[in-house]
Amino acid sequence: MTLVYADAPKTLSVILDLSPATKPHTIVLQPSAALNRANSLEFQLALEKALEQVTEAVIVDLIWVNSTDTYGIAALIAGIQRAAALGKFLSFQSMAANSQLALELAWAHQQESISGAWTHTFSSELESFLDGSTPGETA
Predict the structure, then answer these.
(1) Which of 12, 15, 76, 124 is the most exposed place for a label (fewest CB within 10 A)?
(2) Where are the beta strands (DSSP E) in 18-136?
């Protein structure tokens, strides 16, 4: 497994200009300080470029990120969408609990707005089948 480490988005532009023959399997991004309005677009572009460069996965190590605002969360969501579109794996490591919760809520909200609220109803045939069976009963 090939790992390419980068400390800041400015470094990424140099590291990620790879020829197709030397594409790594995995790239580890390690942003630092904050993911916020001031730098989230630059980070998002670096993340998307990393996803295009790898053959398998991008790991975003957030251990050095001390805060994430809504713009940073939006950049991470954009990364998730890009990874899904490219069929690549994207992993967030060492994320602060409050940032993880904000990311999960934003992702759930986005999924709901795309596909609508999920309802847990079954067809009447399945419901009547379930009503007629008892636990432990065998056919």
Answers:
(1) 124
(2) 26-29, 33-35, 57-61, 65-68, 89-93
